[in-house]
């Protein structure tokens, strides 16, 4: 049985029928639901808040993998955890007290994730590796779905895999952005554990076919 996970990003879902979309990708066989929270400051786009996360929590039993793309994320972690976030990710670029923030996420009962933009070096997460459950490497610049995978992120992903393996810590490696049938093989090869996919999952109307096209390549 495969160990790696597919986390379907609802950013590419039809927000007018979000509950149905979430249930449809659950039926299609995704492992997790990835929820993109954007504030119009850290990233140019604006999406959803804790109330919508709570609504999603009510319609699926799958783990919610919540990706905060907001400034001062520490102000909102409690609200998102109360709303049902299982994994909660903050960006290192907007977390000057990252150690404190990830401790707080764990204290409040969620699994801490640290996210890095394409240009942010791995050393930004190195010293909190023992305090988190997952590193999320962005493989596009965050803000929008449907962007092209940045190929120069592959060596970074491999180095992150080595860093985690050498630490012997139980930390997962997740990637987000431009994951599709054309890029997934290289990512599997690089040792990714969790694959976020938005546009590749919500394309057309056969979600099961989309999900299978990805998970059949995963290990
Ligand atoms: C981008 C978001 C992603 C986005 C990925 O800022 O963090 O989760 O939904 O979309 P695709 O898979 O279409 O690149
Ligand atoms: Zn995301």
UniProtKB/TrEMBL annotation:
Cofactor note: Binds 1 divalent metal cation per subunit.
Lineage start: Bacteria, Pseudomonadati, Thermodesulfobacteriota, Syntrophobacteria, Syntrophobacterales
Enzyme class (EC, first level): isomerase
Recorded family membership: Belongs to the ribulose-phosphate 3-epimerase family.
Protein name per UniProt: Ribulose-phosphate 3-epimerase
EC number of the protein: 5.1.3.1
Binding site for substrate: 9, 67, 143-146, 176-178, 198-199
Residues annotated as the enzyme's active site: 36, 176
Cofactor(s) for this UniProt protein: Zn(2+); Mn(2+); Co(2+); Fe(2+)
UniProt-listed InterPro entries: Aldolase_TIM (IPR013785), Ribul_P_3_epim (IPR026019), Ribul_P_3_epim-like (IPR000056), RibuloseP-bd_barrel (IPR011060)
